[in-house]
Amino acid sequence: MAGRIEARLDELGIVLPVPARPVANYLPFVVTGDLVVVSGQVPLIDGRLGWHGKVGGTVNLEDGMRACRQCFVNLLAQLRVACGGDLDRVVQVVRLGGFIAAAAEFTRHAAVMDGASDLAVAVFGDAGRHARTTVGVPSLPLDSPVEVEGLFRIA
Amino acid sequence: MAGRIEARLDELGIVLPVPARPVANYLPFVVTGDLVVVSGQVPLIDGRLGWHGKVGGTVNLEDGMRACRQCFVNLLAQLRVACGGDLDRVVQVVRLGGFIAAAAEFTRHAAVMDGASDLAVAVFGDAGRHARTTVGVPSLPLDSPVEVEGLFRIA
Amino acid sequence: MAGRIEARLDELGIVLPVPARPVANYLPFVVTGDLVVVSGQVPLIDGRLGWHGKVGGTVNLEDGMRACRQCFVNLLAQLRVACGGDLDRVVQVVRLGGFIAAAAEFTRHAAVMDGASDLAVAVFGDAGRHARTTVGVPSLPLDSPVEVEGLFRIA
Fold it and tell me: How many domains does chain B have?
């Protein structure tokens, strides 16, 4: 029987990917107490980056938002595993950290990161509202335009 | 009746601003257990950035420190709300994360971030001493020269 | 009597340095509950940076990995103090945050950060596997090529 959050994902037309296996000596997430720390996610789609380059450069603002949304989809896929398959156990999205690959003149980091934040609230409602830190970076792994990490509280 | 920390803020001549309302789908802070996670703050003064540009560029070292100090003032304003108005409930400043917008040649990030750290200790004494991570970034939201996030333990 | 982790450090030929004293109003670590938050470490060796500059610039990939490994050695030195001298109390490396000073074209952040992650697992085994966020930055304190922060769970 699908849970409340799974039903909501269906409504939103979101199919969570099979989470990527770790390719190095680190884990996609660690559970400590009632907190789940999820590793920084890049906007992989079926194992390949959906976007490359810098936001404000080869990636425009709208695609930057879409890329952040995809990072949150990938966070959810890892979080579901951390919850033993039951996303209804998520009590709160505590914090999202957003890293936007951009030039020194870029100023619209917040709008880009809203792509992740808006999906968090669409999926979890008030429990999806979170603390957030968003900054620019010169470069990200694999030439990704954005990276988002997450901290979640589960029951 | 003003508390101990409010009295200390008075002595320091600091008036905490009315904390900004969230402008997007995220929150200024989240409380989880006895921890308060406060979103990254830029040096807003009365709703406008007090400084623009890069530290070591249009913003000199001393102004970079002042900007970090203002970020901590803004963290305090949010933290006071998280504490239900009573900053005496703060047990420990656990961690500050400092992001300094600067060129590739800049090396004095630590001195800039001391603007926030020194105020933490001036306000809270030993409980204000914290773990810290400070890094450079190419750009920050709104063309801010600095951004500081905070993690606090409360009773 | 040396503990299990000290014996493992001996096997690996690692001598933990005397941890550096704080030079400003912040601490090398804060313990909150069963978590230890360790401040961002640069690759100091005997009080001096072992490498300067940018990874992919004056610092090649292999030296970037070595520098990340040294950051983890320095995290361990601080963590040992946090544990009252007994690293066997470490239950889990929860999260490492890696900052790689690099140009906008750099893409191999993950490989560089493996220098820290691989040592975490070599020292702690499965308990050393951790969540991780790795990003590029334009500049770091003292012209360091890398900086690594850590979150650990202790008993």
Answer: 1
Residue C89 located in a structural domain: yes
Residue partners of B24: CB distance under 8 A and separation at least 6: A110, A114, A117, A118
Domain with B140, as residue range(s), is: 4-17+30-154
The pLDDT score that the predictor gives to residue C22 is: 67
ipTM: 0.96
Distances (CA, A) of B18 to B77, B85, C47: 7, 12, 43
Query: What number of C-beta contacts closer than 8 Å exist between A and C?
Result: 89
Select from B134, B140, B153 the residue whose CB has the most chain C CBs within 10 Å, as the one to mutate to test that interface: B134
What's the whole-number average pLDDT of chain B? 96
Decide if pLDDT at A21 tops 90: no
Here the CATH number for the domain that contains residue A85 is 3.30.1330.40
Of A30, A38, A40, the CB nearest to C92: A30
pLDDT of residue B105: 96
CB A4 within 8 A of CB A12: no
* C132 found inside a domain: yes
- For the segment B22-37, the average pLDDT, to the nearest whole number, is 91
